[in-house]
Amino acid sequence: MSTVSTRSPASTDPDSAPEGGAPQRTGRRRTVRDKQWPAYVFLSPWMIGAGVLTLAPMAVSLYLSFTDYNLFDPPEWVGLRNYTEMFTEDPRYWRSVGTTLLYVVVAVPLKLAFALGVAMLLKNLGRGRSFYRSAFYAPSLLGASMSIALVWKALFNDGGSVPEALGWIGIDTGGWVGNTDLAVFAVVLLTVWQFGAPMVIFLAGLQQISPDLYEAAALDGAGRWRQFVSITVPMLSPVVFFNLVLETIQSFQVFTPAFAISGGDGGPADSTNFYTLYLYERGFTASHMGYASAMAWMLLIAIAVITAILFRTSRSWVFYADEEGGR
């Protein structure tokens, strides 16, 4: 007499093991992988581009920073010689660092101050806000071009409109471009003129602040300045922090205005010899690509350290309204 099996057909499927069993988990993982592969297909162009156009050149640059490479002959390994020369034997390197730091310390706060001031004016503007917002934003699109930088150089050169206008009110500065004390500030003003991008971000942040806060402060007798210090600044602090980080990173990489205003040589007397301009000179003019690569990596490290410091200090002055318990 034949026996009838009491096992159900499902029990022979390894993926139908009791709940919590390994085969069932394996099946779920396989299902998730089957659903994820289209995402990797669509992401593959970006991942290939990031690897080929970003990560691979960075790796090559890191290798070249330890070599003597002139763009024509094969790289020759020299170890830390480029870094040693940079820190101990190259006074122009340190002058470029000082010029860049001066530019960042002056240009970034001025640019953000102008951006915030104009954003506050536009916030209370009724008709025509869109037009003025577009008009103030336009320099951010045009200011990074070489043509605008050359026009700016003409404005601040000997006989330019700016020295002439200052002369009419009794301030005789002469041409800024040829003045070692004023040339860097011509670049600073060009940067400040491009305040449109942070202005738009500030305007968006200001529009998120509830009018009820200002009404309550006014009822308590707070004036405009007190409202600005006690309400606007704390509520806008995340936006200030965001703009501060972006503008600081961008300012350390300034190149086009300095190249155009100085004629590419950082003059007069290295007063506009910014870090990136000196990097370009060592790499492509003097053909010391290994040294330029070392400079590029030091710039990357410096920006990373300064950004980390900004993030660290933000804990004491950036206020997030939706954070539990506040600051």
Automatic annotation (TrEMBL):
Annotated transmembrane regions: 37-64, 101-122, 134-155, 182-206, 227-246, 289-311
Matches recorded under CDD domains: TM_PBP2
Identification of the protein by name: Sugar ABC transporter permease
Extent of Polar residues compositional bias: 1-14
UniProt keyword terms in alphabetical order: Cell membrane, Membrane, Transmembrane, Transmembrane helix, Transport
Subcellular location(s) per record: Cell membrane
Endpoints of the signal sequence: none
One Pfam family matching this protein: BPD_transp_1
InterPro entries assigned to the protein according to its UniProt record, in alphabetical order: ABC_transporter_permease, MetI-like, MetI-like_sf
Region (Disordered): 1-31
Record family assignment: Belongs to the binding-protein-dependent transport system permease family.
Membrane topology reported for the UniProt record: Multi-pass membrane protein
One annotated GO biological process: transmembrane transport
GO CC annotation, single: plasma membrane
Domain spans labelled ABC transmembrane type-1: 97-310
